[in-house]
Amino acid sequence: MKNPIEYFFHPKSIAIFGASDRQYSWGNWISVNLLRYKAYGNVYLINPKHDTVLGEKTYPTVADVPEDIDLAMIIVPAKEVIPTLERCATKNAKVATIISAGFSETEEGRELGEGLRRVAKDYQIRLQGPNCAGFYNASVPINASPLPPRFLHESPVAFITQSGFVGNTLSIWGPTRNLTLGKYISVGNEADLTLTDYVEYFNQDPSVQIFFLYIEGIKDGERFSNMMRDVAPKKPIVVWKATDTTDVGRAALSHTAHLVGSDQVFQGLMKQTGVIRIHRLEYGLLVCHSLLKHPPLRGNRLAITMQGAGWAIVLTDALSNAGIRIPELSEPLQAKLKQLLPSYRVSVKNPIDFGAADTMDFSIMIKLVKLILESDEIDGFIVANVGEFAPFDENAAILETQLASSIYRLETKCQKPIYLFTLMSEADSKSIPLIKKKMPMYHSMDELIEVLHAQLFHYSRSK
């Protein structure tokens, strides 16, 4: 039997209620984007007040549409949503996305929210939302969101969120950092379909390799738990969830009508199911892509090399306090490293101060990293300050990009992760955007630690 969620992503006919010429309106954004889908299915604009919208013919009511409807996009005032759905039922609508707000997240709208659930059940129309921000799937492609299409990129990451604008922000923020989302759906108030339903659907999609979830509260905790246990061993699931403070609980209720629930219970569930919980939402995309792009981190022993002893102290301090070991390398390994780094000042105990070796020959750095990676003494490597030479010399951008390519090949060959660290951003250094096309980069201690903890937890659960 066909999963009804399939009708969102592969509809043969779409009706848009509230299609509009008015700029910066939901009816305009959604209509502009879905009209691009006309190569794959028919798109009908419903607007009783205008003969045309966006240069396209409109229909006064859905009854005037010449065929049945797979997907209804509903962008009308809350009180008109239920009558609109009832009219959609006469056209055998399969699913509906309700952008409209003003339901169970408000005192006045609770009765309307109950009415939505009743209509969905009576007419067998599956509902996304209400109070949601639509969806997209870059690999179809279909874009029923307000986002311009330039922000949609094919990617193995599926983002399922109880906040639409979090999805919008990450969809815009990510691509410039080579951190893309391929599938995105905003679940809103979950009057019918829930976050769990979308995980179940995307789990059957071979192009989805990892999930990223934004959660304020869980409906049907037992079913959610069972789904996490089923999916997490096959495809990593990265979750940011609101904690259970009083202020957060109040905010979540007024946003999506979700009860946050016990944080202690949720934390226990994450450990049982192998789901990766992150503490900072903005690191979620980075964690997802790190799990996809790096080999597994099989233990907590890391080596560090950098330009200058200051970063050695800072990194060692932050990582060791986070439970990551920076072990002293063995005497035989140190002796081999000293042969590579001919200087009386060189420090090779771990961290390895490459800058003290009186040379910036990146070929020597690659030999150094390879020698340590091939030992049994460490599980991963941090290379600091890559990307920081381009501001001094334009030719350095080429050299640093070549270095990143060599590091990527070495990581692939040795099957141990190498993490590139710098505080500089894309705006600071010309080489950083080029390097990020090769492999991920990390720009703060916190995000590096978040990634390391996620990789360690994921490997420990997958063994």
Features:
alpha/beta, 3 domains, about 40% helix, Rossmann fold, about 475 residues, seven-stranded mixed beta sheet
Brief rundown of the structure:
The chain has 463 residues and is an alpha/beta fold. 39% of the residues lie in helices and 16% in strands.
Please characterize this protein's 3D structure.
Helix content is 39%, strand content 16%. By secondary structure, it is an alpha/beta fold. About 3% of the residues have low confidence. Helix 6 runs parallel beside helix 7, helix 12 packs antiparallel against helix 13 and helix 13 runs parallel beside helix 14. The chain folds into 3 domains: 123 residues, Rossmann fold; 159 residues, Succinyl-CoA synthetase domains (Rossmann fold, 3-Layer(aba) Sandwich), CATH 3.40.50.261; 161 residues, Succinyl-CoA synthetase domains (Rossmann fold).
CATH fold title of the largest domain: Rossmann fold
| Mean pLDDT rating | 90
Q: Terminal Cα separation, in Å?
A: 35 Å
Choose one word for the global shape. Answer: elongated
Radius of gyration: 26 Å
User: Helicity level, as a percent range?
Assistant: 25-40%
Discrete helix count: 16
- Beta-strand percent range: 15-25%
- DSSP summary, beta strand count: 19
Trace the largest sheet across and list its strands.
Answer: 3-4-2-1-5-6-7
Let me know the CATH homologous superfamily of the largest domain: Succinyl-CoA synthetase domains
Q: Sketch the major β-sheet.
A: 7 strands, mixed
Category by helix and strand content: alpha/beta
The number of domains is 3
Name the CATH architecture of the largest domain: 3-Layer(aba) Sandwich
Name the CATH class of the largest domain: Alpha Beta
Low-confidence stretches: 245-260
